[in-house]
# Entry
Amino acid sequence: MCYNYLMKKILLSGVKPTGRPHIGNYFGAMKQFVNLLSSGDFDCYFFIADYHALNFIQNAEEMRQNTLDLAIDYLAIGLDPKKATLFKQSDISAHTELSCIFDTIVTMPYLMRAHAYKDAVAKDKEINVGTFNYPVLMAADILLYDTDVVPVGQDQKQHVEYARDIAQKFNSIFGETFKLPEPLIIEGVATVPGIDGRKMSKSYDNTIPLFASREEIAKAVMSIVTDSGAGIPENVFNIHRLFKDGKELKLFYEKNIGKYKILKEALIEDINAFIEPLRERRVELAKDEKRVIEILKESAVKTNEKANKKLVEVKRAIGVIY
Ligand code: ADP
Ligand code: TRP
# Structure
């Protein structure tokens, strides 16, 4: 393994195309994508984790639409395909090939410690092998690009730790091949609450979509569960502070104690003011789906070259090529 220390650090992250992104995805992860890309300090890779999504979306038309939608979302938040590599996981077969190689060094008891697996067991869900193996494929996604940093929300921290462990184990068996990646988690937005106070998540139906219309924002905000009592409604405040400076906001909430309607109306205005320009940009981008497909196609060529190079290094290390 040979690194050029004059080169920029490598940053990689992905999102599953499992439905409309929400403000939790944005503040927890996607906003960092944009900021870190514009810092100019990183060589950035952002991808659409469609094989991860296949555990949840098993309908071709839905998969196609969600994938295209997420590519448009990436562009709309400001990920410039000229500055970052934007690609679709399934276009780069080295991800699944590397995952298959990792399967041989990862044990079942180790994967049984994963939060997502344990949750599924606790809920008595039938678990497919893809879900069980989810951390292994994710480790392949990350390690294939010699990634240094992985910006994610708190819920993905364990997955990045799995990637580090797998890299370490591989290196100790086959020799130094993989870099150890670090998660990048921003305090304060690590877990954005949903309108019911639990973690905002597509699977809990408690989201405020990132590109929501004004009506959708109003409907979601009006249904934020407010804690009884006359104090500051925590659930409303905790979402509001994403959009307004904390000090000023605290004063506003203190002045309007108990006046939930006024507080929620202010929140609707502030969310809408933030989302409006993103929404408008998205409408424009969505008019040219062909261009979006073209961007993914072009980047697949370049990304395959890079990923396949690393895969050759791995194959040499394990002794399957001469
Ligand atoms: P969901 O739970 O809605 O399905 P994903 O698993 O697609 O979200 O997450 C995509 C990215 O957004 C990940 O980096 C994840 O950590 C982050 N994320 C998701 N929900 C939240 C949240 N409520 N707060 C902060 N970050 C989040
Ligand atoms: N597991 C991530 C999520 O649910 C998506 C993902 C897949 C990812 N592969 C990744 C994130 C690699 C960062 C790096 O949100």
About this structure: Strands lie at 9-15, 42-48, 85-88, 149-151, 182-184. The longest helix spans residues 289-318. The first strand starts at residue 9 and ends at 15.
